[in-house]
Amino acid sequence: MKIASSEFVKSAFSREHWVNGGLPEVAFLGRSNVGKSSLINSLLHRKGLARTSNTPGRTQSINFFLINSVFHFVDLPGYGYARVSKVMKQDWGKMAEEYLSQRDELTLSIQLVDARHEPTPLDRQLNEWLVFNDKRHFVVATKSDKLSNNELAKRIRDMKAEFGKSEIVAYSATTGRGRDDLLDKIRSAVEKS
Ligand code: GTP
Ligand code: MG
Fold first, then answer.
1. Exposed, middle or buried, 64 (CB in 10 Å: 0-12/13-18/19+)?
2. Which of 4, 135, 141, 160 is within CB 3.0–4.6 Å of 115 for a Cys-Cys bond?
3. 38 in ligand 1 pocket by Cβ < 6 Å?
């Protein structure tokens, strides 16, 4: 798929601000700092479109981007960042859960997991939820450039064992590894929606 155009539409802090119009949506999910915003920027070849940061918990709203005027990318807040207050954690969880469980436009969920580490309990929980609720999805192993080929192959094997019902794609926002594959999968999901 060629990205002909991409633009930021809006940040939503509650559901009345979700975009209207009924276009299909592709959502990016994963723990704080896993690389969601970087992945969006690298897919779109737009460096600063989605805000990235070394400070975990940067994306605190649901951010909508219009792609090729036909579908939206949705950058969801990250989960599992220990240093925010309990109340904020609850808000984030609620926002993401409300979106995931109630949004009819949601066509594809892309779950990001750090290629370097064991999945966290919240990674497991999210994957189980996607599988149980029969959501079209796959798992992306991010930051694959930080591993040797051997290490990466081992981590992908472990992830296949862990997330047996999900397809897994190795990705790097730095080198572009996995980009063509991911864009293909997104196109196919949007076409089927
Ligand atoms: P929140 O918005 O806080 O939930 O984080 P996020 O998931 O959007 O992560 P973000 O894209 O902001 O990336 C976090 C950090 O990881 C930044 O310092 C990025 O530069 C770095 N990073 C993201 N993807 C990659 C990658 O593929 N390779 C490498 N080496 N670093 C990456
Ligand atoms: Mg982000």
1. buried
2. 141
3. yes
